[in-house]
Design a protein that fits this description.
This protein has one domain (11-86). It contains one helix and six strands; from the N terminus they run E-E-E-E-E-H-E. The protein has one helix spanning 66-83, and strands at residues 11-20, 24-32, 37-45, 51-53, 57-58, 92-97.
Length: 100
């Protein structure tokens, strides 16, 4: 894993497109904090934007902090809002958010 992904504070969220279908789109989701990393898969329904996250795989055996998951959910909702109509899904997005 690149050290560029590990922030000194806050969370870095990496979204990588795995599949774009007629009904849904699937992204690999990675959460990186100074203390740990977590990975999951998100499925977003193109119609309506319903979002489902798979269980989190983690580097330290503990669940991600809730605020980091909410940050990822927020970025995924924005992604749907900005790209569902044209279905021009970005292959990769990297975002950062400070703890709120």
């Amino acid at each position: 894993m690149s050290s560029d992904l590990i922030p000194q504070h806050g969370v870095r969220v990496l979204l990588e497109l795995e599949r774009a279908g007629d009904r849904d789109v699937v992204y690999r989701v990675e959460l990186h904090t100074a203390a740990s990393s977590h990975a999951s898969r998100a499925t977003i329904a193109i119609e309506g934007g319903a979002l489902a996250l798979d269980a989190w795989a983690t580097s330290r055996g503990e669940a991600p902090e809730p605020w980091t998951v909410e940050s990822a959910r927020s970025f995924l909702k924005i992604l749907h809002k900005n790209h569902a109509a044209e279905r021009d899904w970005p292959r990769r997005q990297l975002r950062w958010r400070d703890k709120r």
